[in-house]
Amino acid sequence: MRAKAIHRASAILLGTFILTHLLVHLTALAGPEAHLATLDFVQVIYRNPVGEAILVLSIITQVITGASRLRFRGIGGWALLQVISGMYLIFFLIMHTGAALMTHNVFGIETDFYWAAGSLYYPGIRIGFAIYYLAAVAAIFTHLAAALHFGWPNASKALVRGLPWFGIGLGALIVATFAGAFYTIELSDEAAGYYIQNFGELAKR
Length: 205
Fold this sequence. Notes:
- This protein is mainly α.
- The chain has one domain: Fumarate reductase/succinate dehydrogenase, transmembrane subunit (3 helical TM bundles of succinate and fumarate reductases).
- It contains eight helices and no strands.
- The chain has helices spanning 3-26, 32-46, 49-68, 77-105, 113-118, 123-151, 157-178, 189-199.
- The longest helix has 29 residues, at 77-105.
């Protein structure tokens, strides 16, 4: 099987997880408890040895096959956007997956609402993490738009052009929610301890 076919196959599995993950994050609009309850429900699927192994394998496959298909010369337009968004997604998947696995398996801390909100809670790290997460959501939908542009010629041009902007809007909404734009957030002692331990002076209010 060619790298392109493997990349697409793993993208379907990983894309399903990412879509579910984003929908779970949207439940935070109803408050931390709503997010925690929804996360507990969906984690039954992948927070086990088999589910976690499949997810990690799909991420590794996506990163390797995606990196092998990167081309930089003589490209522009949607091809350039596809490469840029793909490169950022490779970076984000490695960083975010590694951080989540280490936090849960090494530190023994739940990667729940408060862990995510902690990255946007402290002024010293808030802006960096806001850009980090917003760019990730924008990259997901930009990469999807490019895939539709090249793989589905009959796709609506309005849909293709609108997907990156939708990603930016969705990313901004999720970041704003976890940053406490709609209600006051008080970190759990566990999450606060994690950020103080790992970010030191930057983790001060």
